[in-house]
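User: I've been trying to design a sequence by hand for this structure and keep getting stuck. Would you show me what you'd pick, starting by listing the structure so we're on the same page?

Assistant: Good idea, let's start from the same input. This is the structure you sent:
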C-alpha cells in the first residue's frame, strides 16, 4: 500500500471533488456507424483539457448455443485489422428497436437461425466494429472456439467478454437447451 502524499486531500477524507464541466463538444468525424468527438473539459485546475473518444450506435452481440454445446460464429474480413476474423453475430439497434428484437433480427440476418430462447446477459459501453458484407456463419464447438482465441482469430475483446458471460450463465443453469441464444446488449 502506498503512503499518503502529504499536502493532498485523501480520497475518503477532506473536501469533496469538483465535478468537471464540459465546455465544448465538437464532432471531428461523422459516419453512419460512429462519431469521433472532441470534448473540452474544465477540471477546475485552471486549464481546459481536450479529450477525444469514439461514440458509436447502440448494438447487440448474440451468443448462439445449441444442445450439443456448439456456438455459431461469423467469419468476415475486417479492414481495421486487415484479415478475416471470427466473431459472434453483432449489429446496431435500429431506431426504437428493443434489444430482444435486435438480437433476433441480427441472428437471422447473419446466420439464418431463429432463436427459441433469449437471455439478456447485461450491457457494456464498449462497441464492436461495423459488420462487413462478406460474412460466413459456422457452428463451432467451444473447444474449437477456445483454440481460435488462443490463435488470435477470435480476438474482439467484447466478443470474448460476451463468451465469458454466456459460459457463466450456462454453468449456472448446468444445462444447454436446444438453440438457446444469450445476448449482450450495448449501451
Amino acid at each position: 500500500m502506498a503512503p499518503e502524499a502529504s499536502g493532498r486531500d485523501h480520497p475518503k477524507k477532506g473536501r469533496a471533488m469538483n465535478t468537471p464541466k464540459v465546455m465544448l463538444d465538437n464532432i471531428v468525424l461523422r459516419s453512419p456507424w460512429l462519431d469521433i468527438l472532441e470534448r473540452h473539459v474544465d477540471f477546475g485546475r485552471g486549464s481546459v483539457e481536450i479529450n477525444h473518444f469514439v461514440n458509436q450506435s447502440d448494438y447487440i452481440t448474440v451468443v448462439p448455443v445449441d444442445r450439443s454445446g456448439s456456438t455459431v460464429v461469423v467469419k468476415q474480413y475486417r479492414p481495421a485489422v486487415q484479415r478475416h476474423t471470427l466473431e459472434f453475430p453483432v449489429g446496431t439497434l435500429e431506431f426504437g428497436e428493443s434489444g430482444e428484437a435486435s438480437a433476433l433480427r441480427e441472428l437471422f440476418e447473419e446466420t439464418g437461425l431463429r432463436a427459441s430462447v433469449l437471455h439478456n446477459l447485461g450491457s457494456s459501453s464498449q462497441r464492436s466494429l461495423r459488420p462487413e458484407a462478406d460474412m460466413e456463419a459456422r457452428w463451432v464447438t467451444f473447444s474449437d472456439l477456445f483454440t481460435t482465441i488462443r490463435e488470435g482469430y477470435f480476438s474482439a475483446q467484447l466478443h470474448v467478454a460476451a463468451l465469458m458471460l454466456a459460459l457463466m450463465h450456462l454453468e449456472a443453469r448446468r444445462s444447454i437447451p436446444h438453440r438457446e441464444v444469450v445476448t449482450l446488449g450495448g449501451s
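That's my pick for every position. To get oriented when you compare it with your attempt: Residues 157-173 form the longest helix (17 residues). The radius of gyration is 21 Å.
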